[in-house]
TrEMBL record:
Subcellular location per the Swiss-Prot or TrEMBL entry: Cell membrane
Job description of the protein: Produces ATP from ADP in the presence of a proton gradient across the membrane.
Name used for this protein in its record: ATP synthase epsilon chain
Parts of the chain that traverse the membrane: none
One GO CC term on file: proton-transporting ATP synthase complex
Keywords in alphabetical order: ATP synthesis, Cell membrane, CF(1), Hydrogen ion transport, Ion transport, Membrane, Transport
Record's subunit section: F-type ATPases have 2 components, CF(1) - the catalytic core - and CF(0) - the membrane proton channel. CF(1) has five subunits: alpha(3), beta(3), gamma(1), delta(1), epsilon(1). CF(0) has three main subunits: a, b and c.
Protein encoded by which gene: atpC
């Protein structure tokens, strides 16, 4: 048994398919949704989503947002969603270096906040990328 999962950003539908489970980050910790989960509406934190289908996992890095669980569908609305295979490691590391320079020189106001956000996103995306690379093999039971 499975359910329909939709992950939507302001720019695109990042994912839509029938899945066995999904785990999402919330301010209180990670929540896993399985078929026949009770109805739920919750806030999502910036973090990692793990989607389980058949014998494999898919990972996405997300910005904050919301999740609604109903009997037939789980809808996730987030500010951004990046699949592990869309992540460019070299570009992330370059952005990290630029952000580190701003943080080291104690940049001003918005510049400092933007550098902090880039560091958070880049660390998350690198985590998702590494997890994806280490688990490209199908699961065995």
């Amino acid at each position: 048994m499975n359910f329909l999962l939709e992950i939507v950003t302001p720019d695109r539908t990042a994912y839509t398919d029938s899945v066995d489970a999904v785990s999402v980050p919330t301010p209180q910790g990670t929540i896993s949704v399985l078929p026949r989960h009770a109805g739920l509406f919750t806030v999502l934190s910036e973090g990692e989503i793990k989607v389980t289908t058949a014998n494999k996992h898919l990972y996405l890095a997300i910005g904050g947002g919301f999740m609604e669980v109903t009997k037939k569908i789980v809808s996730i609305l987030v500010s951004r969603a990046v699949h592990a295979d869309e992540i460019n490691e070299r570009a992330i590391k370059e952005a990290q270096e630029r952000a580190k320079e701003v943080l080291a020189h104690k940049g001003k106001g918005e510049e400092f906040s933007a550098a902090q956000a880039i560091m958070r996103r880049s660390l998350l995306e690198l985590k998702v990328l590494r997890r994806h690379r280490s688990r490209q093999m199908p699961l065995t039971h």
